[in-house]
Specification:
The complex is a heterotrimer of chains A (250), B (216) and C (473). Chain A is an alpha/beta fold and 250 residues long. Chain A is built from 13 helices and 8 strands. Chain A has 2 domains: 117 residues; 115 residues, 3-Layer(aba) Sandwich (Rossmann fold), CATH 3.40.50. Chain A starts with 6 loop residues before the first strand and ends in a 7-residue tail after the last helix. With 216 residues, chain B is of the alpha/beta class. In chain B, helix 4 links the parallel strand 2 and strand 3. The relative contact order of chain B is 0.17. With 473 residues, chain C is α/β, with parallel strands linked by helices. The chains are: A alpha/beta (250), B alpha/beta (216), C alpha/beta (473).
Chain lengths: 250, 216, 473
């Protein structure tokens, strides 16, 4: 269902995916291009500033937010494979710049154009079938900021359900926090791990082969615990399931 | 004792705190979605459903007589031996008196029931309102009424008439506001606690059983 | 109550390793969360009630001087004596003076969080008054010499066996592990206290300004007994408990029990107005109301005003995955959970309480269930920002943040660092994971792996694949 005119999309690939999960970025590009987006990658982007903002370090967060707004100046959609990063731009930038009216305007303009991947595919591009070859039993973890911050619940499920090879099984309390919380996971690792264990218990109860999510932070946390303890489930980003088999450049 | 602490100072402190930080105007005027008023029969049915689902016992009949065996049995199995009703509540007194032959009962005075050594008791009282929305009985201290039957007895028997039923708490508060009593007691089912292991247990401090008796 | 919130880290570690505590927390919160969800689902008007309750509370706070003034006038007109307490010490002093002047030797107390906040029981006991906690949970906690661990279920951390042992040791009752028998013991023991107490002490769930009424909500019936039978009734309430009208009460009674225990309404709601009148057969002859500030007027001043909307239902505690993990005592002061993580720093000092504000993933579950729509995560963020502004942050964190912001200021610097990390990663890290992290990050890898940096970052790979286009600045 490629559209006639290409839709301009700037990829907000996020600092975590950039440094740790380039595959997720390429998968995101592959899915977007599959549905007619003309993907641009502003290479001057770095980090949206969320870790600084969430830990109360607003001066630093402000610097990074300014940097972000410069990198994504202009028009067209801003799409990211991370719900919490999208929520940062949409929901927190206006608060961060509350004493600077021009910055608030800039931030709101960026915020209005910013979407998480599954939200963009379903709400903007009207995708009903992601045309993915992925196969497996999958359970979906709702990231807090995607679910509550952006109100996205159905979109990823709709996409997953329409992949013929995917068997989507819901876990109990799918929107219960996994315990990542950015700086929280460093300041209170024992509580963070406890929450991750509670999450993994619910994931394992589904018998799924894969746990997926629309947030890189959650997957890093859940995945880190799976990797250490050798649980029989594989973390995979939603974008990678939607992309299916595609060529990753080496 | 005279009031301690300067109220005026407290209010001034609050006023100063608010100065320059006044309201962001909130969106106004949304009132809770009111449903259309229920018919009396619907009101009673709804009350009964809510009341019973919260542990209350509900009895209704065309007159008192056919209800007496069941009411007597309910009190007997709760171990009740003493029945009392407050002075001036003729309707409740009549129910209590008529019930005496239907179990091992005798009439007692509220003064006797207040004693720690009092036998297991049932307190009879006409309730002023029954709220359909929540299955709640309302006993107030209006015009010198006592609250003891619903407070210290082991079984509380609330006598209701069809006119007592209202849809919502608002109506009952509005009616009582004209001459606001010292106490309004909203009672929904028996006294309960979940304080040990979150296990619902009946009969913490108030009545262990609440029986609503609807008479025409 | 002496705050211990600065020791949250250590206390939370202890809580996590206490198996009995863990079992009771998960049982309690699980039951409460389920019951609340069912009650909300069964009541279609809940969202409308939430909007209305939230609006009323906010508008009341915005003109609190007016509404509290009205309450004082109306309550006094009906025979109450109103006292204003600036802080806990004043509240304790006023309460002990009342007890002394009224000649009280035995008082029965209903559950009151404000009572806990200022340690009213301790003060009265120190003045020679026997104070009996009449809420069963509080009674248990009092016998154990502890403090409540949940704002609506104070003894959630105790098992029935522990309760029974307490009753054997402190009351000389025979051992039983049957809950109904334990409840019957408490009923009997407390009934004699209700009948002989000279004073009933309670908090207030709501203060109605237009009538000077006090609304009290309980399930056990202790609130009614303690405010009907004794000769004196002493109320201690925070100034934020005011609502403008008695007719506003129903909306809050639709919200509070559903949010707290999942009941459509609590078993007992008492609306108490003034003192016993000549025609009344019972009721207190004296009614003293202590209105407690204790920092609330300061909170009213600024960006934290919304926290004073709280109606103390406990829903945010039950839903919070952090509370579910560590329980109430770890928080170290009167108010635990998300609500406590905001109130404690504001009321006991930022340095004391800010560890609580940091102990949240900002998941937002609390704001989702709050019956008066308090934006708790937003307030936690403000506290963290204040921590930085007031110079209370760990210097290592500030240093780290500055370094991180410096790296992120230029994509070129970031890419250079990413490529160095990539090389280290390819040489040293096996299977794409880092088993340990240095410095303050070390806790992360205690029980988790950290991902190894990719050999080349996405931005590098992208340039290789697609070349540098004009828009790829």
């Amino acid at each position: 269902m490629a559209l006639n005119r290409p839709i301009p999309v700037s990829l907000f690939f996020t600092c975590l995916a950039d440094a740790f999960y380039p595959d997720v970025c390429f998968a995101t590009v592959a899915v977007l291009e599959r549905f007619g987006a003309e993907v641009r990658v502003p290479l001057s982007q770095t980090c949206c500033g969320q870790p600084a903002f969430n830990s109360g370090n607003r001066k630093e967060a402000g610097k990074m937010a300014r940097k972000f707004l410069q990198a994504f100046a202009g028009e067209g959609y801003i799409v990211t494979p991370s719900g919490s990063c999208a929520s940062m731009v949409k929901n927190e930038y206006p608060a961060l710049f509350r004493d600077e009216p021009t910055m608030v305007a800039l931030a709101s303009f960026a915020g209005e154009r910013t979407y998480e991947l599954s939200q963009f595919l379903v709400d903007v591009l009207g995708v009903t079938d992601p045309q993915s070859s992925f196969r497996g039993k999958v359970t979906y973890h709702d990231s807090c900021h995607l679910r509550r911050g952006l109100g996205v619940f159905e979109a990823p499920r709709k996409l997953l359900r329409s992949i013929p090879g995917v068997n989507l099984v819901e876990m109990e309390d799918s929107d219960r926090c996994c315990g990542f919380g950015g700086v929280f996971s460093i300041k209170y690792p024992h509580i963070s791990c406890r929450m991750a264990e509670d999450k993994i218990e619910r994931i394992l109860a589904t018998g799924a082969q894969f746990v997926t999510s629309g947030d890189i932070g959650c997957l890093m946390n859940i995945g880190g615990m799976i990797s250490r303890s050798g649980y029989p489930v594989k973390p995979i980003h939603l974008a990678q399931i939607l992309a299916g088999n595609f060529e990753v450049p080496s | 004792m005279e009031p301690v602490g300067r109220k005026e100072e407290l209010l001034r402190r609050i006023a100063v705190a608010l100065r320059g930080h006044e309201a962001i105007k909130s969106a106004s005027g949304a009132t809770a979605g009111r449903e259309a008023a229920l018919s009396v029969a619907d009101r009673i049915a709804r009350f009964r459903n809510m009341f019973e689902s919260q542990g209350g016992n509900f009895l209704a009949g065309p007159s008192l007589d056919p209800l007496l065996p069941e009411l007597g049995e309910a009190l007997r199995i709760s171990g009740v031996t003493a029945l009392f009703s407050p002075r001036g509540d003729e309707r409740a007194r009549l129910v209590a008196e008529t019930l005496v032959p239907f179990g091992p009962f005798r009439l007692a005075s509220p003064g006797e029931i207040r004693q720690l050594s009092a036998p297991s008791s049932a307190g009879f009282q006409t309730a002023e309102f029954a709220i359909a929305e929540t299955g709640t009985i309302v006993q107030s201290g209006q015009k010198g009424k006592t609250l003891l039957p619903g407070l210290i007895s082991d079984v509380h028997v609330a006598i209701l008439s069809p006119a007592a039923f209202v849809d919502r708490m608002e109506e009952c508060l509005a009616a009582l506001s004209e001459d606001l009593p010292r106490t309004i007691s909203f009672i929904t089912g028996p006294s309960r606690t979940g304080d040990i292991e979150q296990t619902l247990t009946i009969g913490a401090h108030g009545p262990k059983k609440v029986i609503a008796v609807l008479l025409p | 109550m002496e705050p211990l919130s600065r020791f949250f880290y250590r206390r939370s570690e202890k809580a996590l390793s206490d198996a009995t505590l863990q079992a009771s927390i998960s049982r309690t919160t699980g039951k409460f969360v389920g019951a609340r969800a069912d009650a909300v689902a069964a009541f279609p008007g809940f969202e409308t009630a939430r909007d209305e309750g939230s609006r009323i509370k906010r508008e009341t706070l915005d003109r609190l001087d007016h509404h509290l003034g009205r309450f004082i006038d109306e309550a006094e007109r009906r025979g109450a004596v109103i006292h204003a307490a600036r802080d806990g010490a004043e509240a304790r002093e006023i309460a002990t003076r009342i007890a002394k002047e009224e000649g009280v030797t035995l008082a029965v107390k209903s559950k009151s969080m404000v009572g806990e906040e200022v340690d009213l029981t301790g003060a009265l006991e120190a003045a020679g008054v026997e104070v009996v906690e009449s809420d069963l949970g509080e009674f248990i906690v009092q016998l154990a010499g502890e403090t409540p661990s949940h704002i609506i279920a104070p003894a959630v951390h105790k098992t029935r066996e522990q309760v029974s042992k307490l009753f054997v040791e402190k009351l000389g009752e025979p051992y039983t592990d049957k809950i109904p028998e334990l409840v019957a013991i408490a009923r009997r023991r407390l009934r004699e206290k209700f009948l002989s107490a000279g004073m009933g002490v309670s908090g207030a769930n709501f203060l109605c300004a237009d009538t000077g009424s006090i609304a009290l909500v309980t399930n056990e019936g202790n609130g009614r007994m303690g405010t009907t039978l004794p000769r004196v009734h002493l109320v201690v309430a925070g100034i934020e408990k005011v609502i403008p009208r008695l007719s506003d009460l129903p909306v809050f009674l639709r919200l509070l029990p559903r949010s707290a225990t999942g009941q459509p309404i609590s078993t007992y709601v008492s609306v108490l107005t003034g003192v016993k009148r000549p025609e009344d057969p019972e009721g207190p002859e004296k009614l003293h109301i202590i209105l407690l500030d204790n920092g609330r007027s300061g909170i009213l001043k600024g960006k934290y005003r919304d926290i004073l909307k709280c109606i103390r239902c406990g829903a945010c505690l039950n839903i919070c995955p952090v509370y579910q993990s560590v329980g109430g005592h770890a928080y170290g002061w009167t108010y635990p959970g998300p609500i406590g993580s905001v109130l404690t720093p504001l009321m006991t000092g930022l340095a004391e309480g800010v560890p609580l504000a940091n102990a949240s993933t900002l998941c937002g579950a609390c704001a989702d269930v709050c019956p008066v729509k308090i934006p708790i995560p937003g307030l936690l963020l403000e506290l963290r920002a204040d921590e930085r502004d007031r110079g209370l942050k760990d210097p290592a964190e500030v240093f780290g943040m500055k370094g991180y912001a410096a790296v992120m200021s230029r994509a070129g610097i970031l890419e250079a660092l990413e490529r160095i990390a990539g090389v280290i990663s390819s040489v040293f890290l096996k299977e794409g994971k880092a088993p340990w992290l240095p410095f303050r990050f070390s806790g992360w890898t205690d029980r988790r792996d950290f991902p190894a940096p990719a050999p080349q970052p996405f931005r590098k790979l992208w340039k290789k694949q697609r070349g540098i286009r004009p828009w790829n600045r």
